[in-house]
Design goal:
single chain, 199 residues, mainly alpha, 6 helices, 4 strands, 66% helix
Length: 199
């Protein structure tokens, strides 16, 4: 109930606390406030998974994971499980490798979003404190840069082929990861608190 003190209205303390909590979490001003960035120790923890996954991509970019080498262990598996012949295997092998591209860079984009979110100051806006265009842009551009450098590196390896088509494929996977993050936020967002006074 609204209390009347000295001919003025005063909201109950519970309503005031709810309003303050809502303002801190979602913001009520069109401009965003910023929290401090993650402490150094926690920042490293946020970057370690991305660095480890990036190391996997670097290793995958070497001759050891060329088409000639991956076919040696994929062919017996697919032949045993699906009974496919060598002609059909060539097609399967191609799409499996492209799927590996998508998965690898999709995951890298997710991990880089997590790392940049811990690095940049957190924007506390009326929309969200869990998603920012800054984090998404940095994650996508960094992943696209890695894809470009990866293909450039492969162009110097005789058993590998560097092509812009793979850069576009990897960048598309990175973009899909950021869209998935944004979609996940909207599906799991918490309802905004509202303060309603009773007469």
């Amino acid at each position: 109930m609204i209390e009347v003190v000295d001919n003025s209205f005063q909201l109950p303390k519970s309503a005031v606390r709810a309003a303050i909590s809502s303002q801190l979490e979602f913001g009520t001003h069109p401009w965003s406030a910023c929290e401090s960035s993650t402490p150094g120790g926690q920042l490293w923890k946020a970057w370690i998974p991305a660095i480890i996954w990036l190391s996997f991509i670097v290793i995958e970019s070497t001759d050891s994971f060329s088409s000639a080498h991956t076919s040696k262990f994929l062919w017996p598996i697919l032949h045993f499980l699906a009974g496919i012949d060598m002609v059909r295997f060539e097609s399967w092998h191609h799409y499996i490798r492209k799927a590996g591209h998508c998965v690898g860079y999709f995951v890298l984009s997710l991990l880089l979003f997590r790392a940049w979110r811990a690095t940049f100051p957190r924007a506390v806006s009326r929309w969200t404190s869990r998603w920012s265009l800054q984090w998404t842009s940095a994650a996508f551009l960094a992943t696209a840069l890695v894809a470009s450098l990866d293909e450039w590196h492969q162009s110097y390896i005789p058993s590998r082929t560097g092509t812009y088509k793979d850069v576009l494929l990897d960048s598309s996977a990175a973009l899909m990861a950021q869209i998935a993050i944004l979609g996940f936020f909207f599906l799991t967002r918490r309802p905004r608190c509202r303060v309603e006074s009773a007469s």
